[in-house]
Specification:
By secondary structure, the chain is an alpha+beta fold. It contains eight helices and 14 strands. One of its GO terms (biological process) is protein maturation.
Amino acid sequence: MADTSPAPLPPSAPPSASPPGPGPGAVPRPGLPEAEGWSCPAPLRDHPVVVTGHGGGGALSAELMTHLFAPAYGEALLPGLADSAVLTVPGGPRLAFSTDSYVVRPLFFPGGSIGDLAVNGTVNDLAMSGARPLALSCGFILEEGTALRTVDRVARAVGAAASAAGVTIATGDTKVVEAGHGDGVYLSTAGIGLVPEGVDIRPERAAPGDVVLVSGPVGAHGVAILSVREGLEFGAEVRSDTAPLAGLVRAMLDVTPELHALRDPTRGGLAASLNEIAAASGTGVVLAERAVPVPDAVTAACGFLGLDPLYVANEGRLVAFVPRRHAEAVLAAMRAHPQGAGAAVIGECTEEHPGMVVARTGLGGTRVVDLPIGEQLPRIC
């Protein structure tokens, strides 16, 4: 790997650069709720209503969970705030549990649909804790006036994706909202899986010296959605990478159960996943930007639209933090699996700049890769 030593971090802002408080004599803004009792700092106070970025998987989503939902749930909340939680059944196995909702627009896109997206997304969240997915629930929220042939097409995609992933649709629900109060079809899925003995995969376990691997080229899903939604062409069709990843994770675990952290970089892209793991583990991440595989059509689309591929969503990729002594063997196992054929080493963990992600650019410089505030491309999952 090329030299990936991070550049010096910028100096901290002086105290005077902190956002000012209301101060004496401040005039309240009309129409805004009283926020003095909230437990959250800015920028939530700057958004008295829900904005699209709150669902984007970036900083706004994290602040909404940390400063609004977590205090509201109180002692009922299981610590960790992970995409999937590992629960120990007294006297029994460890189970992974996950839930998700899907509001993608359009419902059908190159390479997939909301149906297989919902199945694969929940299966992958379970797999990121090392679990073998067992069963899913699937709830349909339908808008009045939606063609039944559209609902049938989505339902068939759900069934086909579940069969391909080896999971059972164990239960479900259907609700209908009035015309104009939905967007055709929304889906909500939850899943359970079995975590093997000796497997402990969570973001807090990433450690200095770990090698960072990605399972294949990034950015295709977000660009595929955008191309259909906006009627754009980029010289070649970009197809979503949506796919189940549990089989790939099993192949990696067959090499070693000592995988430290796994993430499927969906909303917020690779940048969000790397930042989440860096923050949870307190380690720094150095990313070799040129080593990150990006399809040519995605590179062209991002250049045309002013997007950064690191922040574009994926639905069939994973990023892994692996102890260096196992990295070569795990990489080989990934490349031998259909869902990991394009796997690559993209960085490493360091004791420097704890909790931050720094990219070494192709020109030899460095830049900080921040957690995105919201989402460059909303409604992509």
